[in-house]
Amino acid sequence: PYPDHLRSPHHLLPGCQSEVWLAGELVRGRLHLHADSESALVAGLLALLVHIYSGNEPEAILLDDRTCFQSIGLDEFLSPHRAN
Questions:
Q1: Mean per-residue pLDDT for 4-21?
Q2: 30-37 and 20-27: which strand pairing?
Q3: Cβ(53)–Cβ(61) below 8 Å
Q4: How far, rounded to the nearest angstrom, does the alpha carbon of residue 9 sit from its chain's CA centroid?
Q5: CA of 43: how far to CAs of 48, 64, 69, in Å?
Q6: Has 68 been annotated as catalytic?
């Protein structure tokens, strides 16, 4: 569950149609992510991203080719706005 104290305007992602909160903390060189959305579909997509990237070193995340949704075929079912 997304911590209530992180549901703040500071953690809202701009440009999203639904409210999306994203926070990260660096612990011993690894980024731990927390994310949630008021939209069930977006919350599910965020859960996948958190599962894939949380706990990795920031450099490794930046070097990733960001094709996780394509590799499982999910990108075919996402609107361009949601895929972004």
A1: 93
A2: antiparallel
A3: yes
A4: 17
A5: 9, 21, 15
A6: no
Q: Rounded distance, CA 43 to CA 79, Å?
A: 15
Q: Which of 6, 7, 13, 16 is catalytic?
A: 16
**Contacts of residue 31, Cβ cutoff 8 Å, sequence gap at least 6:** 24, 25, 53, 54, 55, 56, 57, 58, 61
Q: What is the pLDDT of residues 18-39, one digit of tens each?
A: 999 999 999 999 999 999 999 9
Asked whether 51 and 62 are in contact (CB, 8 A), the reply is no
pTM above 0.90, yes or no: no
* Amino acid sitting at position 17: Q
* DSSP one-letter string for the chain: ---GGG-SGGGBPTT-SS-EEEEEEEETTEEEEEEEESSHHHHHHHHHHHHHHTTB-HHHHHHS---HHHHTTGGGGS-HHHH-
